[in-house]
Amino acid sequence: MTDLPRYLQLLWGREPEGRRGPKPGRTIEGIGAAAVEIADREGLEAVSMKSVARAVGFTTMSLYRYVDSKEELEAVMLDVAYGAPTFTYDTGSGWRDRISLWARGIAQRRLAHPWTVELIQSAPPLTPNVLAWTEHGLAALEDTPLTSEQRLSAMLAIDGWAQNHLRQSVQMGFTGPVDPESPQGNYLGLISQLIDPERFPQLTAAGSESLGDPDDNFYAEEFDRGMGLLLDGIAALIERHP
Amino acid sequence: MTDLPRYLQLLWGREPEGRRGPKPGRTIEGIGAAAVEIADREGLEAVSMKSVARAVGFTTMSLYRYVDSKEELEAVMLDVAYGAPTFTYDTGSGWRDRISLWARGIAQRRLAHPWTVELIQSAPPLTPNVLAWTEHGLAALEDTPLTSEQRLSAMLAIDGWAQNHLRQSVQMGFTGPVDPESPQGNYLGLISQLIDPERFPQLTAAGSESLGDPDDNFYAEEFDRGMGLLLDGIAALIERHP
DNA sequence: GCGCTACTGCGTACGGTGCAAGCAGTTACT
DNA sequence: AGTAACTGCTTGCACCGTACGCAGTAGCGC
Protein backbone atom coordinates (compact mmCIF):
# COMPACT_ATOMS: atom_id res chain seq x y z
CA MET A 1 0.00 0.00 0.00
CA THR A 2 1.69 3.09 -1.25
CA ASP A 3 1.07 6.17 0.80
CA LEU A 4 -0.72 9.03 -0.81
CA PRO A 5 0.94 11.98 -2.47
CA ARG A 6 0.63 15.12 -0.43
CA TYR A 7 -1.98 16.92 -2.50
CA LEU A 8 -4.35 13.95 -2.31
CA GLN A 9 -3.97 13.73 1.44
CA LEU A 10 -4.89 17.38 1.67
CA LEU A 11 -7.79 17.20 -0.80
CA TRP A 12 -9.33 14.18 0.86
CA GLY A 13 -8.67 15.45 4.37
CA ARG A 14 -6.45 12.52 5.22
CA GLU A 15 -3.90 14.30 7.30
CA PRO A 16 -2.82 12.61 10.49
CA GLU A 17 -4.01 14.55 13.54
CA GLY A 18 -1.84 15.80 16.31
CA ARG A 19 0.78 17.21 13.99
CA ARG A 20 3.51 19.44 15.36
CA GLY A 21 4.55 22.81 14.12
CA PRO A 22 2.48 25.76 12.94
CA LYS A 23 -0.85 25.19 11.21
CA PRO A 24 -0.75 25.67 7.46
CA GLY A 25 -1.78 29.19 6.53
CA ARG A 26 -3.70 28.23 3.40
CA THR A 27 -5.71 25.35 2.02
CA ILE A 28 -5.03 23.56 -1.27
CA GLU A 29 -8.53 24.35 -2.32
CA GLY A 30 -7.69 28.03 -1.84
CA ILE A 31 -4.46 27.70 -3.72
CA GLY A 32 -6.21 25.83 -6.51
CA ALA A 33 -8.93 28.46 -6.65
CA ALA A 34 -6.34 31.21 -6.97
CA ALA A 35 -4.67 29.31 -9.80
CA VAL A 36 -8.01 28.81 -11.52
CA GLU A 37 -8.73 32.50 -11.24
CA ILE A 38 -5.44 33.34 -12.92
CA ALA A 39 -6.09 30.84 -15.69
CA ASP A 40 -9.60 32.18 -16.25
CA ARG A 41 -8.36 35.73 -16.39
CA GLU A 42 -5.00 35.51 -18.16
CA GLY A 43 -4.84 32.04 -19.63
CA LEU A 44 -3.16 28.85 -18.53
CA GLU A 45 0.31 29.97 -19.55
CA ALA A 46 0.06 32.76 -16.98
CA VAL A 47 -0.17 30.15 -14.23
CA SER A 48 3.28 29.71 -12.76
CA MET A 49 4.38 28.73 -9.31
CA LYS A 50 5.39 32.32 -8.81
CA SER A 51 2.13 33.91 -9.97
CA VAL A 52 0.00 31.53 -7.96
CA ALA A 53 2.15 32.03 -4.89
CA ARG A 54 1.85 35.78 -5.20
CA ALA A 55 -1.92 35.51 -5.57
CA VAL A 56 -2.21 33.73 -2.23
CA GLY A 57 0.42 35.87 -0.53
CA PHE A 58 3.19 33.32 -0.58
CA THR A 59 6.68 33.09 -1.95
CA THR A 60 7.19 30.64 -4.77
CA MET A 61 8.74 27.84 -2.80
CA SER A 62 6.07 27.89 -0.11
CA LEU A 63 3.67 26.30 -2.54
CA TYR A 64 5.74 23.17 -2.41
CA ARG A 65 4.51 22.63 1.11
CA TYR A 66 1.13 21.83 -0.40
CA VAL A 67 2.03 20.32 -3.74
CA ASP A 68 5.02 18.30 -4.86
CA SER A 69 5.12 19.54 -8.43
CA LYS A 70 3.35 21.81 -10.82
CA GLU A 71 1.63 18.81 -12.35
CA GLU A 72 -0.03 18.15 -9.03
CA LEU A 73 -1.11 21.76 -8.85
CA GLU A 74 -2.77 21.31 -12.22
CA ALA A 75 -4.64 18.28 -10.94
CA VAL A 76 -5.95 20.44 -8.11
CA MET A 77 -6.93 23.14 -10.59
CA LEU A 78 -8.95 20.64 -12.59
CA ASP A 79 -10.71 19.48 -9.46
CA VAL A 80 -11.60 23.04 -8.51
CA ALA A 81 -12.81 23.75 -12.03
CA TYR A 82 -15.11 20.75 -11.98
CA GLY A 83 -16.50 21.50 -8.57
CA ALA A 84 -18.93 19.06 -7.00
CA PRO A 85 -21.91 18.03 -9.15
CA THR A 86 -24.88 19.92 -7.79
CA PHE A 87 -27.82 18.56 -9.73
CA THR A 88 -29.82 15.41 -9.11
CA TYR A 89 -31.70 13.24 -11.58
CA ASP A 90 -35.47 13.40 -11.75
CA THR A 91 -37.04 10.28 -10.43
CA GLY A 92 -38.74 8.58 -13.31
CA SER A 93 -36.41 9.95 -15.94
CA GLY A 94 -34.78 7.46 -18.28
CA TRP A 95 -31.09 6.80 -18.79
CA ARG A 96 -31.02 8.91 -21.90
CA ASP A 97 -32.24 12.05 -20.16
CA ARG A 98 -30.00 11.39 -17.22
CA ILE A 99 -26.78 10.89 -19.07
CA SER A 100 -27.59 13.87 -21.28
CA LEU A 101 -28.04 16.00 -18.22
CA TRP A 102 -24.75 14.74 -16.89
CA ALA A 103 -22.90 15.37 -20.13
CA ARG A 104 -24.31 18.87 -20.33
CA GLY A 105 -23.22 19.49 -16.78
CA ILE A 106 -19.65 18.47 -17.51
CA ALA A 107 -19.58 20.42 -20.75
CA GLN A 108 -20.83 23.49 -18.93
CA ARG A 109 -18.12 23.33 -16.29
CA ARG A 110 -15.43 22.83 -18.87
CA LEU A 111 -16.77 25.58 -21.08
CA ALA A 112 -16.54 27.94 -18.12
CA HIS A 113 -12.83 27.09 -17.90
CA PRO A 114 -11.70 26.41 -21.47
CA TRP A 115 -8.08 26.06 -20.42
CA THR A 116 -8.94 22.63 -19.03
CA VAL A 117 -8.47 21.25 -22.53
CA GLU A 118 -4.85 22.39 -22.46
CA LEU A 119 -4.07 20.39 -19.37
CA ILE A 120 -2.20 17.21 -20.03
CA GLN A 121 -2.92 14.66 -17.37
CA SER A 122 -0.29 11.99 -17.33
CA ALA A 123 -2.08 10.09 -14.62
CA PRO A 124 -5.73 9.18 -14.13
CA PRO A 125 -7.65 11.57 -11.92
CA LEU A 126 -7.95 10.77 -8.23
CA THR A 127 -9.31 14.03 -6.90
CA PRO A 128 -12.64 14.21 -5.02
CA ASN A 129 -14.73 16.35 -7.34
CA VAL A 130 -13.66 14.61 -10.52
CA LEU A 131 -14.38 11.23 -8.98
CA ALA A 132 -17.73 12.54 -7.77
CA TRP A 133 -18.64 13.41 -11.35
CA THR A 134 -17.57 9.98 -12.47
CA GLU A 135 -19.76 8.43 -9.82
CA HIS A 136 -22.65 10.60 -10.92
CA GLY A 137 -22.21 9.54 -14.53
CA LEU A 138 -22.25 5.88 -13.67
CA ALA A 139 -25.35 6.43 -11.58
CA ALA A 140 -27.11 7.86 -14.62
CA LEU A 141 -26.81 4.46 -16.31
CA GLU A 142 -27.77 2.53 -13.21
CA ASP A 143 -31.13 1.36 -14.53
CA THR A 144 -29.81 0.02 -17.81
CA PRO A 145 -29.22 -3.70 -18.22
CA LEU A 146 -25.59 -3.05 -19.11
CA THR A 147 -22.77 -4.59 -17.15
CA SER A 148 -20.77 -2.15 -15.10
CA GLU A 149 -17.93 -2.61 -17.55
CA GLN A 150 -20.20 -1.53 -20.39
CA ARG A 151 -21.49 1.35 -18.34
CA LEU A 152 -17.99 2.53 -17.70
CA SER A 153 -17.18 2.26 -21.40
CA ALA A 154 -20.27 4.19 -22.38
CA MET A 155 -19.58 6.90 -19.85
CA LEU A 156 -15.97 7.24 -20.88
CA ALA A 157 -17.03 7.49 -24.49
CA ILE A 158 -19.48 10.27 -23.72
CA ASP A 159 -17.09 12.16 -21.50
CA GLY A 160 -14.30 11.74 -23.99
CA TRP A 161 -16.41 12.96 -26.81
CA ALA A 162 -17.61 16.02 -24.89
CA GLN A 163 -14.08 16.85 -23.91
CA ASN A 164 -12.81 16.44 -27.42
CA HIS A 165 -15.58 18.51 -28.89
CA LEU A 166 -14.67 21.36 -26.60
CA ARG A 167 -11.04 20.93 -27.50
CA GLN A 168 -11.71 21.09 -31.21
CA SER A 169 -14.05 24.03 -30.77
CA VAL A 170 -11.50 25.98 -28.79
CA GLN A 171 -8.94 25.26 -31.48
CA MET A 172 -11.26 26.51 -34.16
CA GLY A 173 -12.19 29.54 -32.11
CA PHE A 174 -15.85 28.53 -32.15
CA THR A 175 -16.50 29.01 -28.48
CA GLY A 176 -16.84 32.75 -28.73
CA PRO A 177 -17.59 35.35 -31.38
CA VAL A 178 -15.61 34.65 -34.53
CA ASP A 179 -12.94 37.19 -35.28
CA PRO A 180 -12.15 37.10 -39.01
CA GLU A 181 -8.82 38.82 -38.41
CA SER A 182 -7.52 36.11 -36.10
CA PRO A 183 -5.60 33.19 -37.58
CA GLN A 184 -8.54 30.90 -36.75
CA GLY A 185 -10.95 33.35 -38.30
CA ASN A 186 -9.62 32.98 -41.80
CA TYR A 187 -9.01 29.28 -41.43
CA LEU A 188 -11.09 28.84 -44.52
CA GLY A 189 -9.11 31.42 -46.41
CA LEU A 190 -5.88 29.70 -45.53
CA ILE A 191 -7.19 26.26 -46.32
CA SER A 192 -8.54 27.23 -49.71
CA GLN A 193 -5.21 28.88 -50.38
CA LEU A 194 -3.41 25.63 -49.71
CA ILE A 195 -5.36 22.72 -51.02
CA ASP A 196 -5.65 21.66 -54.60
CA PRO A 197 -9.35 20.97 -55.32
CA GLU A 198 -8.40 17.96 -57.39
CA ARG A 199 -6.33 16.32 -54.70
CA PHE A 200 -8.71 17.39 -51.93
CA PRO A 201 -12.20 17.26 -53.44
CA GLN A 202 -14.04 16.30 -50.25
CA LEU A 203 -12.35 18.94 -48.17
CA THR A 204 -13.03 21.55 -50.81
CA ALA A 205 -16.70 20.65 -50.83
CA ALA A 206 -16.98 20.47 -47.08
CA GLY A 207 -15.21 23.76 -46.68
CA SER A 208 -17.42 25.68 -49.03
CA GLU A 209 -20.62 24.14 -47.73
CA SER A 210 -20.52 23.50 -44.07
CA LEU A 211 -17.99 25.80 -42.53
CA GLY A 212 -19.43 28.71 -44.39
CA ASP A 213 -20.86 30.50 -41.41
CA PRO A 214 -19.78 29.05 -38.11
CA ASP A 215 -21.98 31.15 -35.90
CA ASP A 216 -22.24 31.27 -32.16
CA ASN A 217 -24.56 28.30 -32.01
CA PHE A 218 -22.17 26.06 -33.88
CA TYR A 219 -20.68 24.71 -30.70
CA ALA A 220 -24.01 23.83 -29.14
CA GLU A 221 -25.52 22.40 -32.31
CA GLU A 222 -22.54 20.22 -32.98
CA PHE A 223 -22.58 19.12 -29.38
CA ASP A 224 -26.17 17.94 -29.66
CA ARG A 225 -25.52 16.27 -32.98
CA GLY A 226 -22.54 14.26 -31.79
CA MET A 227 -24.15 13.43 -28.47
CA GLY A 228 -27.19 12.14 -30.33
CA LEU A 229 -24.93 9.88 -32.36
CA LEU A 230 -23.42 8.38 -29.23
CA LEU A 231 -26.71 7.97 -27.42
CA ASP A 232 -28.18 6.20 -30.43
CA GLY A 233 -25.24 3.87 -30.32
CA ILE A 234 -25.77 3.14 -26.65
CA ALA A 235 -29.46 2.61 -27.25
CA ALA A 236 -28.62 0.06 -29.91
CA LEU A 237 -26.31 -1.65 -27.47
CA ILE A 238 -29.01 -1.82 -24.84
CA GLU A 239 -31.60 -3.20 -27.23
CA ARG A 240 -29.43 -6.04 -28.34
CA HIS A 241 -28.48 -6.81 -24.77
CA PRO A 242 -29.47 -10.30 -23.51
CA MET B 1 -5.34 37.23 -48.07
CA THR B 2 -2.89 36.73 -45.27
CA ASP B 3 0.42 35.32 -46.32
CA LEU B 4 1.38 31.96 -44.99
CA PRO B 5 3.53 31.36 -41.93
CA ARG B 6 6.96 30.12 -42.82
CA TYR B 7 6.55 26.49 -41.81
CA LEU B 8 3.48 26.11 -43.99
CA GLN B 9 5.24 27.61 -46.98
CA LEU B 10 8.00 25.08 -46.49
CA LEU B 11 5.72 22.12 -45.90
CA TRP B 12 3.58 22.86 -48.94
CA GLY B 13 6.54 23.77 -51.14
CA ARG B 14 5.32 27.30 -51.62
CA GLU B 15 8.63 29.08 -51.56
CA PRO B 16 9.18 31.73 -54.18
CA GLU B 17 11.82 30.64 -56.68
CA GLY B 18 14.93 32.56 -57.54
CA ARG B 19 15.84 33.29 -53.96
CA ARG B 20 19.20 34.79 -53.14
CA GLY B 21 21.64 33.61 -50.54
CA PRO B 22 22.74 30.12 -49.60
CA LYS B 23 20.35 27.22 -49.99
CA PRO B 24 18.92 25.97 -46.72
CA GLY B 25 20.98 23.08 -45.42
CA ARG B 26 18.04 21.09 -44.06
CA THR B 27 14.36 20.52 -44.75
CA ILE B 28 11.54 21.04 -42.26
CA GLU B 29 10.52 17.48 -42.85
CA GLY B 30 14.01 16.46 -41.74
CA ILE B 31 13.89 18.70 -38.72
CA GLY B 32 10.44 17.41 -37.85
CA ALA B 33 11.60 13.82 -38.24
CA ALA B 34 14.51 14.46 -35.89
CA ALA B 35 12.15 15.95 -33.34
CA VAL B 36 9.80 12.98 -33.69
CA GLU B 37 12.68 10.62 -33.14
CA ILE B 38 13.63 12.38 -29.93
CA ALA B 39 10.03 12.31 -28.72
CA ASP B 40 9.70 8.62 -29.56
CA ARG B 41 12.90 7.79 -27.77
CA GLU B 42 12.95 10.12 -24.76
CA GLY B 43 9.47 11.57 -24.51
CA LEU B 44 7.98 14.87 -25.56
CA GLU B 45 9.54 16.81 -22.71
CA ALA B 46 12.97 15.96 -24.11
CA VAL B 47 12.13 17.87 -27.27
CA SER B 48 13.63 21.32 -26.93
CA MET B 49 14.88 23.70 -29.55
CA LYS B 50 18.36 22.85 -28.39
CA SER B 51 18.00 19.08 -28.51
CA VAL B 52 16.35 19.14 -31.93
CA ALA B 53 18.97 21.51 -33.26
CA ARG B 54 21.75 19.29 -32.02
CA ALA B 55 20.12 16.27 -33.62
CA VAL B 56 20.21 17.89 -37.04
CA GLY B 57 23.64 19.44 -36.54
CA PHE B 58 22.47 22.98 -35.92
CA THR B 59 22.76 25.52 -33.20
CA THR B 60 19.58 26.36 -31.36
CA MET B 61 18.80 29.60 -33.10
CA SER B 62 19.25 28.19 -36.57
CA LEU B 63 15.99 26.31 -36.19
CA TYR B 64 14.20 29.64 -36.25
CA ARG B 65 15.09 29.93 -39.92
CA TYR B 66 12.57 27.14 -40.53
CA VAL B 67 10.02 27.67 -37.81
CA ASP B 68 8.83 30.80 -36.05
CA SER B 69 8.11 29.21 -32.70
CA LYS B 70 8.19 25.93 -30.90
CA GLU B 71 4.46 25.62 -31.39
CA GLU B 72 5.00 25.56 -35.13
CA LEU B 73 7.64 22.91 -34.69
CA GLU B 74 5.09 20.82 -32.85
CA ALA B 75 2.67 21.19 -35.73
CA VAL B 76 5.37 19.86 -38.03
CA MET B 77 6.02 16.99 -35.64
CA LEU B 78 2.36 16.03 -35.73
CA ASP B 79 2.39 16.10 -39.51
CA VAL B 80 5.44 13.85 -39.64
CA ALA B 81 3.90 11.49 -37.10
CA TYR B 82 0.75 11.13 -39.18
CA GLY B 83 2.58 10.63 -42.43
CA ALA B 84 0.59 10.32 -45.63
CA PRO B 85 -2.26 7.79 -45.61
CA THR B 86 -1.03 4.82 -47.60
CA PHE B 87 -4.03 2.54 -47.83
CA THR B 88 -6.94 2.67 -50.25
CA TYR B 89 -10.50 1.50 -49.78
CA ASP B 90 -11.66 -1.71 -51.40
CA THR B 91 -14.07 -1.04 -54.19
CA GLY B 92 -17.39 -2.42 -53.17
CA SER B 93 -16.80 -1.96 -49.47
CA GLY B 94 -19.45 -0.09 -47.51
CA TRP B 95 -19.02 3.09 -45.50
CA ARG B 96 -18.80 1.20 -42.27
CA ASP B 97 -15.82 -0.86 -43.35
CA ARG B 98 -14.21 2.16 -44.89
CA ILE B 99 -14.45 4.50 -41.95
CA SER B 100 -13.38 1.69 -39.64
CA LEU B 101 -10.30 1.15 -41.73
CA TRP B 102 -9.62 4.86 -41.62
CA ALA B 103 -10.07 5.10 -37.87
CA ARG B 104 -7.81 2.14 -37.33
CA GLY B 105 -5.22 3.76 -39.53
CA ILE B 106 -5.24 6.95 -37.53
CA ALA B 107 -5.21 5.11 -34.24
CA GLN B 108 -2.25 3.08 -35.42
CA ARG B 109 -0.23 6.14 -36.33
CA ARG B 110 -1.02 7.82 -33.05
CA LEU B 111 -0.30 4.71 -31.06
CA ALA B 112 3.12 4.58 -32.67
CA HIS B 113 3.74 8.08 -31.30
CA PRO B 114 1.82 8.28 -28.03
CA TRP B 115 3.22 11.72 -27.24
CA THR B 116 0.84 13.15 -29.84
CA VAL B 117 -1.84 13.20 -27.16
CA GLU B 118 0.27 15.58 -25.12
CA LEU B 119 0.43 18.15 -27.88
CA ILE B 120 -1.86 21.07 -27.39
CA GLN B 121 -2.86 22.53 -30.71
CA SER B 122 -4.15 26.02 -30.27
CA ALA B 123 -4.95 26.32 -33.96
CA PRO B 124 -6.66 23.94 -36.39
CA PRO B 125 -4.25 21.83 -38.41
CA LEU B 126 -3.18 23.06 -41.82
CA THR B 127 -0.33 20.71 -42.58
CA PRO B 128 -0.34 18.47 -45.66
CA ASN B 129 -0.44 15.00 -44.14
CA VAL B 130 -3.04 15.82 -41.54
CA LEU B 131 -5.26 17.38 -44.17
CA ALA B 132 -4.70 14.36 -46.39
CA TRP B 133 -6.03 12.12 -43.61
CA THR B 134 -9.02 14.38 -43.21
CA GLU B 135 -9.69 14.16 -46.93
CA HIS B 136 -9.37 10.39 -46.75
CA GLY B 137 -11.85 10.22 -43.89
CA LEU B 138 -14.43 12.28 -45.71
CA ALA B 139 -13.98 10.10 -48.78
CA ALA B 140 -14.86 7.05 -46.68
CA LEU B 141 -18.34 8.50 -46.19
CA GLU B 142 -18.70 9.58 -49.80
CA ASP B 143 -21.38 7.03 -50.66
CA THR B 144 -23.64 7.84 -47.72
CA PRO B 145 -26.68 10.07 -48.23
CA LEU B 146 -25.39 12.42 -45.55
CA THR B 147 -24.78 16.07 -46.26
CA SER B 148 -21.16 17.08 -46.26
CA GLU B 149 -21.80 18.90 -43.00
CA GLN B 150 -23.04 15.70 -41.44
CA ARG B 151 -20.14 13.79 -42.88
CA LEU B 152 -17.74 16.26 -41.34
CA SER B 153 -19.49 15.96 -38.01
CA ALA B 154 -19.41 12.19 -38.12
CA MET B 155 -15.76 12.13 -39.06
CA LEU B 156 -14.80 14.61 -36.36
CA ALA B 157 -16.70 12.55 -33.82
CA ILE B 158 -14.86 9.39 -34.80
CA ASP B 159 -11.48 11.05 -34.91
CA GLY B 160 -12.11 12.80 -31.64
CA TRP B 161 -13.18 9.64 -29.96
CA ALA B 162 -10.18 7.71 -31.21
CA GLN B 163 -7.88 10.44 -30.06
CA ASN B 164 -9.51 10.65 -26.69
CA HIS B 165 -9.44 6.92 -26.19
CA LEU B 166 -5.73 6.91 -26.80
CA ARG B 167 -5.33 9.80 -24.40
CA GLN B 168 -7.22 8.06 -21.64
CA SER B 169 -5.38 4.82 -22.27
CA VAL B 170 -2.01 6.50 -22.09
CA GLN B 171 -3.05 8.15 -18.85
CA MET B 172 -4.08 4.84 -17.39
CA GLY B 173 -0.93 3.18 -18.64
CA PHE B 174 -2.94 0.69 -20.68
CA THR B 175 -0.99 1.04 -23.88
CA GLY B 176 1.83 -1.21 -22.78
CA PRO B 177 2.47 -3.89 -20.22
CA VAL B 178 1.04 -2.86 -16.86
CA ASP B 179 3.62 -2.17 -14.21
CA PRO B 180 2.04 -2.60 -10.79
CA GLU B 181 4.81 -0.56 -9.19
CA SER B 182 4.08 2.55 -11.24
CA PRO B 183 1.58 5.10 -9.96
CA GLN B 184 -0.81 4.08 -12.75
CA GLY B 185 -0.33 0.43 -11.92
CA ASN B 186 -1.90 0.63 -8.52
CA TYR B 187 -4.56 3.07 -9.59
CA LEU B 188 -7.07 0.65 -8.19
CA GLY B 189 -5.20 0.40 -4.93
CA LEU B 190 -5.17 4.14 -4.57
CA ILE B 191 -8.79 4.55 -5.57
CA SER B 192 -10.04 1.94 -3.16
CA GLN B 193 -7.96 3.61 -0.49
CA LEU B 194 -9.69 6.92 -1.11
CA ILE B 195 -13.34 6.39 -1.84
CA ASP B 196 -16.01 5.61 0.65
CA PRO B 197 -18.13 2.73 -0.76
CA GLU B 198 -21.26 4.39 0.52
CA ARG B 199 -20.63 7.71 -1.16
CA PHE B 200 -19.22 6.09 -4.31
CA PRO B 201 -21.16 2.87 -4.80
CA GLN B 202 -21.02 2.83 -8.60
CA LEU B 203 -17.32 3.50 -8.69
CA THR B 204 -16.69 0.85 -6.11
CA ALA B 205 -18.63 -1.68 -8.13
CA ALA B 206 -17.05 -0.69 -11.41
CA GLY B 207 -13.59 -0.79 -9.90
CA SER B 208 -13.88 -4.25 -8.47
CA GLU B 209 -15.56 -5.71 -11.53
CA SER B 210 -14.28 -4.22 -14.70
CA LEU B 211 -10.85 -2.84 -14.05
CA GLY B 212 -9.85 -6.01 -12.33
CA ASP B 213 -7.39 -7.17 -14.93
CA PRO B 214 -6.62 -4.54 -17.54
CA ASP B 215 -4.55 -6.72 -19.81
CA ASP B 216 -2.73 -5.86 -22.98
CA ASN B 217 -5.85 -6.19 -25.08
CA PHE B 218 -7.81 -3.71 -23.05
CA TYR B 219 -6.89 -0.86 -25.33
CA ALA B 220 -7.93 -2.67 -28.50
CA GLU B 221 -11.11 -4.14 -27.03
CA GLU B 222 -12.25 -0.81 -25.68
CA PHE B 223 -11.42 0.77 -29.00
CA ASP B 224 -13.68 -1.64 -30.85
CA ARG B 225 -16.44 -1.28 -28.30
CA GLY B 226 -16.53 2.51 -28.44
CA MET B 227 -16.11 2.61 -32.19
CA GLY B 228 -19.04 0.23 -32.52
CA LEU B 229 -21.13 2.61 -30.44
CA LEU B 230 -20.35 5.50 -32.73
CA LEU B 231 -20.86 3.56 -35.93
CA ASP B 232 -24.22 2.35 -34.71
CA GLY B 233 -25.14 5.94 -34.09
CA ILE B 234 -24.09 6.96 -37.58
CA ALA B 235 -26.01 4.02 -39.03
CA ALA B 236 -29.12 5.21 -37.21
CA LEU B 237 -28.57 8.68 -38.61
CA ILE B 238 -28.28 7.32 -42.13
CA GLU B 239 -31.41 5.18 -41.82
CA ARG B 240 -33.57 8.05 -40.75
CA HIS B 241 -32.13 10.25 -43.43
CA PRO B 242 -34.71 11.55 -45.97
C1' DG C 1 32.63 42.21 -64.22
C1' DC C 2 30.35 45.00 -60.21
C1' DG C 3 27.95 46.07 -55.88
C1' DC C 4 23.54 45.51 -53.69
C1' DT C 5 20.47 42.67 -51.32
C1' DA C 6 18.30 38.85 -49.48
C1' DC C 7 19.42 35.02 -47.55
C1' DT C 8 22.17 31.39 -44.59
C1' DG C 9 23.63 29.53 -39.97
C1' DC C 10 26.03 31.20 -35.58
C1' DG C 11 27.00 33.63 -30.97
C1' DT C 12 25.57 36.19 -27.30
C1' DA C 13 22.29 37.70 -24.03
C1' DC C 14 17.91 38.09 -21.40
C1' DG C 15 13.93 37.18 -18.69
C1' DG C 16 11.44 33.45 -17.20
C1' DT C 17 10.66 28.72 -15.60
C1' DG C 18 10.34 24.62 -12.13
C1' DC C 19 12.52 23.12 -8.36
C1' DA C 20 16.64 21.42 -4.87
C1' DA C 21 18.51 22.63 -0.39
C1' DG C 22 19.13 24.85 3.76
C1' DC C 23 17.24 28.52 6.86
C1' DA C 24 15.06 30.43 11.47
C1' DG C 25 10.85 30.34 13.82
C1' DT C 26 6.74 27.76 15.83
C1' DT C 27 4.12 24.10 17.86
C1' DA C 28 3.07 19.71 20.25
C1' DC C 29 4.75 15.56 21.49
C1' DT C 30 7.92 12.76 25.00
C1' DA D 1 12.48 21.15 29.33
C1' DG D 2 14.04 19.08 25.37
C1' DT D 3 13.29 17.41 21.01
C1' DA D 4 11.25 16.49 16.73
C1' DA D 5 8.19 17.78 13.14
C1' DC D 6 6.31 21.18 10.96
C1' DT D 7 5.76 26.20 8.88
C1' DG D 8 7.02 29.73 5.22
C1' DC D 9 11.32 32.11 3.38
C1' DT D 10 15.82 32.78 0.98
C1' DT D 11 19.25 31.62 -2.15
C1' DG D 12 20.79 29.35 -6.15
C1' DC D 13 20.85 26.36 -10.27
C1' DA D 14 20.04 24.41 -14.76
C1' DC D 15 17.25 24.99 -18.43
C1' DC D 16 13.89 26.97 -21.38
C1' DG D 17 12.19 29.83 -25.58
C1' DT D 18 13.60 33.47 -28.24
C1' DA D 19 15.16 38.66 -29.52
C1' DC D 20 19.02 40.59 -31.86
C1' DG D 21 23.10 41.34 -34.36
C1' DC D 22 26.84 38.92 -36.75
C1' DA D 23 29.98 37.33 -40.91
C1' DG D 24 29.67 34.74 -44.89
C1' DT D 25 27.25 33.44 -49.41
C1' DA D 26 24.53 33.33 -53.65
C1' DG D 27 21.74 35.51 -57.14
C1' DC D 28 19.99 39.87 -58.85
C1' DG D 29 20.25 44.43 -61.84
C1' DC D 30 23.71 47.15 -63.71
Summarize the entry for a quick read.
The structure is a homodimer of 242-residue chains. Helix content of chain A is 57%, strand content 0%.
CATH class annotation of the largest domain in chain A: Mainly Alpha
Query: Which pair of protein chains has the largest interface, and what are the residue counts?
Result: A-B, 72 and 72 residues
Which blocks of ≥5 consecutive residues of chain A have pLDDT under 50? Answer: none
Please state the oligomeric state of the protein chains shown: homodimer
DNA-binding region (chains A, B): 48-67
InterPro entries (chains A, B): Homeodomain-like_sf (IPR009057), HTH-type_TetR-like_transc_reg (IPR050109), HTH_TetR (IPR001647), Repressor_TetR_C (IPR004111), Tet_transcr_reg_TetR-rel_C_sf (IPR036271)
Domain HTH tetR-type (chains A, B): 25-85
Protein name (chains A, B): TetR family transcriptional regulator
Short descriptors:
242 residues; mainly alpha; Arc Repressor Mutant, subunit A; Tetracycline Repressor, domain 2; DNA-binding; DNA-binding (chains A, B); Repressor_TetR_C (chains A, B); transcription (chains A, B)
What layout of secondary structure does this protein have?
The structure is a homodimer of 242-residue chains.
Chain A: H1 6-11, H2 28-42, H3 49-56, H4 70-82, H5 95-112, H6 128-140, H7 148-172, H8 187-194, H9 201-209, H10 218-239
Chain A binds a DNA duplex (30 and 30 nucleotides) through loops.
